[in-house]
Amino acid sequence: MIQGHLLSRAVCVLADLRVPDLIGEGARDGPELARLTGTDPDALIRLLRALVAFEVLDERDDGFRLTPLGAGLRTDAPASALPSALLAHGEIGEAWQHLGTAVRTGNPSFPDLYGTDFFRYVDRNPAFRETFDRSQADGLALDDLADAVDLTCVRRIVDVGGGDGTLLAALLTGHPHLHGTLLDLAAPAHRAREQMRAAGLDGRCTVVTGDFFTSVPAGGDLYLLRQIMHDWDDARCVTLLRSCRRAMSPGARIVVSDLVLDTGPSAVPDESAALMDLYMLTVVGGRERTLAQFHDLFARAGLTVRRVTRLAGRTAAIEAVAARSAHEE
Length: 329
Known about the structure:
Layout: H1 4-16, H2 19-23, H3 30-37, H4 41-53, E1 57-60, E2 63-66, H5 68-71, H6 82-89, H7 91-96, H8 99-105, H9 110-114, H10 118-124, H11 126-138, H12 142-148, E3 156-160, H13 166-174, E4 179-184, H14 186-198, E5 205-209, E6 222-226, H15 234-247, E7 253-261, H16 271-283, E8 289-290, H17 291-300, E9 303-310, E10 315-322
Helix pairs in contact: 1-4, 1-6, 3-4, 6-11, 8-16
């Protein structure tokens, strides 16, 4: 366990050198890979053989080949792990090395290292933004989420913090009766417009540039927040939910799709969820939450949770409506 970071770093270096793409479905020997990657042959072969020991690679007479595990690091792999490996190899991995600082202060370490908060950094660095967007898109559980939400009577979805539009485009493609509005900051909004045009969906989707803490577009039947709330502390989450609440017309719903932590004596520990909670602390100052904590945030924002649908990977779709005021009861 203590040496686990060594394996993680070795995998990330392999990905950063694009070795899995260079090997592809065939085999390449060490000297050839060193020439293609501009690395020291002896050092690279030592890296490759270390990863053979962990079944990321396989060494045969004709050279090194990818195992099924290693093939997941190829650019063209379904749900490729490459974007996540590149992030872990770079700025996010560096922030993670300062977990101790985050634990001592309760504040994320990323701003101290890079002079700004994570999301401003993303906005100012297009290459980093592209890798980050790809890491988010590759993890979309589109089928699960679409099945969990009743879209029968929905005419317009508002995707709050919708990034480059991957999720909304998939929903609009799969449900021809829907129209959409996507809200995000300038850089992701620009990418979303391009994606909608490329998919032939620009006639059914409006992309709005703005700050969701300030205002959210009105007119939606369904307000969708996928992996948004875990980026923020409780106070900011309540502000965001209240912004959505103000935009919601009577009968509108809000669906939050996020990881939900299990707690209590009968809970089954989840290593990935526990580490993701620390990741959010260290990088953005957010957190993963229990269902009770989500209920509390919704209530503080004037919303009532109506349904919770468990999805894959400890995530859930939490559906809420505007709480009835006293004069409505």
